[in-house]
Amino acid sequence: MSARRLPPEWAHQQAMLLVWPRDGGDWGNGLAAARDVSAAMAAALCKRQQVILVCADDECAYSIAAHPLLAELGHARLKVVQVANDDIWARDTGPLTVIENGARLFLDFRFDGWGGQFDAGHDDRLTAALHAAGAYGAGTLERREHTLEGGSIEVNGDGALLTTERCLIAGRRNANIDRDAAQSLLANAFGVDTVHWLAHGDLIGDDTDGHIDTLARFAATDTIVYQGCDDPADAHHAPLTAMAAELAALRDRHDTPYRLVELPLPAPIHDPDDGHRLPAGYANFLIANGCVLAPAFNDPADEPAHAILAGLFPNREIIPIDSRALIRQHGGLHCAAMQIPAIPSAS
């Protein structure tokens, strides 16, 4: 294996990066609700680790200081940094932090608004701007000119990376890159020796071209938890069943099948304005120090989904966070956060 390593999400974290929803962005009349979700995430995380909360302007800074959940914290572990941004999806705009020779290297891939769908000029510069401000602590910045989002990859900490063909090699990013070139890129950047490619699986309403963090996640080096659908009448049933079959055929670097755990699917949630179905699911959970933030949708499937996560992470508190405000903009808890791993000697 390479000396370079992308730690899995359950490795000890120094901080979690969040971005405060800004006025004048895409949130419209959902801004207050989105800010409430961001505040709930920050409040839960600040009990366990530092939170780097990015604000776009003075109005955002004022609303952070005035929010009841954040005012109660006294900002002891809350580090507010003012940097221009386009949207809150830190998983895709923040750094992918690898460990090399005992030090952190913050990889800054290009971000182009998920294949040019949305304005992304500020977000493409976010990682570098935060590094220049000293927000991450010790570590070197490495700019990468390929386009890659954090939500498109999952690693198990034992040489394996899980991703989707539709996003990395069959989508709108990185024209003319083929599987061999993509595999080489991933191995070089993250120190992995096994890349698992999924051809199936999608959530209706997803505009990321099939980010893996909405579909299947490593919960341990040998365990994958994935989004299922047990209703044959649901449009998700066929693609998610095909994805489950692909997952069952995977083998790790030791030629061993993974332990697979299925998550239920919430009932359809539709956009209140135009009625289109939103990409609601439970795979978009967030692992942090001592806890897992779990999506909640005021749905009967919430409780069994959270019980499954509790079984997978018995030493972490499962904290439900109402994600309906975020799903209106086609994102979730994991999409809205990026962990900054601790330097190994400090973990």
TrEMBL record:
Highest taxon of the lineage: Bacteria
Record InterPro entries: Peptidyl-Arg-deiminase_porph
Keyword annotations from UniProtKB, A to Z: Hydrolase
Statement: the UniProt record of this protein carries the keyword Hydrolase: yes
Protein known as: Agmatine/peptidylarginine deiminase
Source organism (scientific name): Salinisphaera aquimarina
